[in-house]
Automatic annotation (TrEMBL), chain A:
It comes from the Bacteria. Keywords: Cell inner membrane, Cell membrane, Membrane, NAD, NADP, Translocase, Transmembrane, Transmembrane helix. It is a multi-pass membrane protein. Belongs to the PNT beta subunit family. The transhydrogenation between NADH and NADP is coupled to respiration and ATP hydrolysis and functions as a proton pump across the membrane. InterPro entries: DHS-like_NAD/FAD-binding_dom, NADH_DH_b, PNTB-like. This is NAD(P) transhydrogenase subunit beta. PANTHER family: NAD(P) TRANSHYDROGENASE SUBUNIT BETA. It comes from Stygiobacter electus. It catalyses: NAD(+) + NADPH + H(+)(in) = NADH + NADP(+) + H(+)(out). Gene3D superfamilies: TPP-binding domain.
Automatic annotation (TrEMBL), chain B:
It holds the Pfam family PNTB_4TM. The chain crosses the membrane at residues 6-24, 36-55, 61-84. InterPro entries: NADP_transhyd_a_C. This is proton-translocating NAD(P)(+) transhydrogenase. It is an enzyme of class 7 (translocase). GO terms for biological process: NADPH regeneration. Keywords: Cell inner membrane, Cell membrane, Membrane, NAD, NADP, Translocase, Transmembrane, Transmembrane helix. Residues 10-93 form the NAD(P) transhydrogenase alpha subunit C-terminal domain. It is found in: Cell inner membrane.
């Protein structure tokens, strides 16, 4: 019996690996996710056959409640809310690890081998931080908790002291596993640390925070694997841990920030940047109305659309899809250039456009399309700002200096749709608007694009 | 746990991280959101531990914690896989 269980766990692990492997192409990704889900089902069924499981009532109730909540969340969450959903899921994963570690501590009641003790402490710490940290991240994305950089006195020393205290308490527990109050203290401080660590991270940095918490939730699963000496938990947890770390690196690189800089909090100079006086020195912006703009598009051959989160806020994805259709009907080549940090989590913009039925072969990553801009007639920027600010290339005083940007200013004409001249998410003025080849097209993204589509249809 | 089996667990851990890095770095940016929610569902594998904790015969603090863990992990598993599927089925090529 035991050997069958072990082999089933191995099969399940292989399903996870194949599932992720098939995520390497949009053609096979859905099947991959299904295979991964089958792997999970195998793991659950096999575990239920384990001889240690003797009572099923609570398990069945738990499985049903969890499945219902999960299913409702999965179907009800709008695509714009995906970062929040992933944040919450990270949190539940971390929470489950903490609970399993606590449960195992009480079950062993004082008779805990050293290695297991270390793994329990690690599970409590990582799981606890993941749970509350993710809930704060969710709150920030949902607008329940302020998206601003929250500073509190002695931030770094306080966190360091708490971390050292937790680890010290952990060592004591491993040596003397009967001190159950200390385990509760470790759990509490870990939960507190999660809040304190994520609170200082600003709204603009949430994609990094979510990716990092994703990695933590995997690591929490892996430490639980060490607690239970279960290889499958270790494998699955490590895969997720690696995934989160890679995405975190990509996000940091795309913002030209070090991970430490993000984690320690704050885009230091945000909000206090250039004042209006420096902008007026750059001259006047040229604005354009929908009729003129339609003629510009009509005479163009190639168009690149650069979407930002502002497009999603205005619910303009479907209008943008209509624009693509009318332009393609007129024989123009239309593609999308997607910056890695467009949207509020890695890959978010692609999901939003896919939902609006934009064909995925038109969605190009920054490195695949950036060299094409000089050959493009019109680049249309919708709801994006900082990711197209040329100051990132040359202005050493700019907070975004060094951040990779989309080269929209190299296009023959660049049209920027914005509601007003207000600064972007990071609070930085954009010199692009004053460039000779730049045209401002003011208005709410959805209305403005719809108007443009109407004008184009009449031409 | 003897040190031999601990070493085996560490072997598995380290090798799985390498496999993870290899696999994930091949996922295109276009799929990064479903990758995250899908891998999230995988991290719900803690359900295995939760089930073992909740299934003990006598009803103790340990089983109560296990029960809550089952709920949490199941939200993670079911929510993660379903939402990933919902996203991936929207990715179409015309």
């Amino acid at each position: 019996m035991n050997i069958i269980i072990e082999i089933s766990y191995l099969v399940s692990s292989i399903f996870f690996i194949f599932g992720i492997k098939m995520m390497s192409s949009p053609k096979t990704a859905r099947k991959g996710n299904f295979i991964s889900a089958v792997g999970m089902l195998i793991a659950i069924i096999v575990t239920l056959l384990d001889k240690h499981i003797l009572s099923f009532e609570w398990i069945v109730i738990g499985l049903i409640i969890g499945s219902l909540i999960g299913a409702i969340m999965a179907f009800k969450t709008p695509m714009t809310g995906m970062p929040q959903m992933v944040g919450v899921l990270n949190g539940f994963g971390g929470g489950a690890s903490t609970l399993v570690a606590l449960s195992e501590f009480y079950r062993l009641s004082g008779n805990i081998p050293t290695q297991t003790g270390i793994a329990i402490v690690a599970s409590l710490l990582i799981g606890g931080v993941t749970f509350t940290g993710s809930m704060i991240a969710f709150g920030k994305l949902q607008g329940i908790v302020t998206g601003k950089v929250v500073k509190y006195p002695f931030q770094h020393p306080l966190n360091l002291i708490l971390l050292i205290a937790t680890i010290t308490a952990g060592v004591v527990i491993v040596i003397n596993p009967t001190l159950s109050w200390l385990v509760l203290a470790i759990t509490f401080v870990s939960l507190l640390l999660g809040v304190l660590l994520v609170l200082p991270i600003g709204g603009a940095d949430m994609p990094v925070a979510i990716s990092l918490l994703n990695s933590y939730s995997g690591m929490a699963g892996a430490t639980t694997g060490f607690v239970l000496q279960n290889n499958e938990l270790i494998i699955a947890g490590s895969l997720v841990g690696a995934s989160g770390i890679i995405l975190t690196q990509i996000m940091c690189k795309a913002m030209n920030r070090s991970l430490m800089n993000v984690v320690l909090g704050g885009w230091a100079s945000a909000g206090t940047v250039q004042t209006a006086s420096t902008t007026s020195a750059k001259g006047q912006v040229k604005s354009v109305d929908s009729e003129e703009l339609a003629m510009i598009f009509d005479s163009a051959e190639s168009v690149i659309i650069v979407p930002g989160y502002g497009m999603a806020v205005a619910q303009a994805q479907h209008a943008v899809r209509d624009l693509v259709n009318v332009l393609e009907f007129k024989g123009k080549k239309v593609r999308f250039a997607i910056h890695p940090v467009a949207g509020r989590m890695p890959g978010h913009m692609n999901v939003l456009l896919a939902e609006a039925q934009v064909s995925y072969d038109k969605l190009l990553a920054m490195e695949d399309i950036n060299d094409d801009f000089p050959n493009i007639d019109v680049a249309l920027v919708i709801g994006a700002n900082d990711v197209v600010n040329p100051a990132a290339r040359h202005d050493k005083s700019s907070p975004i200096y060094g951040m990779p940007i989309l080269n929209v200013d190299y296009a023959k004409t660049v049209v920027i749709n914005k509601r007003s001249m207000n600064a972007g998410y990071a609070g930085i003025e954009n010199e692009l608007f004053f460039y000779p080849n730049a045209l401002m097209y003011f208005g709410d993204a959805k209305e403005a694009v719809n108007k443009l589509v109407q004008e184009l249809k009449q031409l | 746990m003897e040190s031999v089996s601990l070493i085996m667990l560490i072997y598995v851990f380290v090798l799985a991280i390498f496999v993870g890095f290899e696999l994930i770095s091949k996922v295109p940016p276009i799929l990064h959101t479903p990758l995250m929610s899908g891998s999230n569902a995988i991290s719900g594998i803690t359900i295995v531990g939760a089930l073992l904790a909740a299934g003990a015969e006598e009803f103790t603090i340990s089983t109560i914690l296990g029960f809550i863990a089952v709920v949490f992990a199941m939200i993670n598993v079911v929510g993660g896989y379903l939402v990933t599927d919902r996203m991936l089925k929207m990715f179409k090529k015309k």
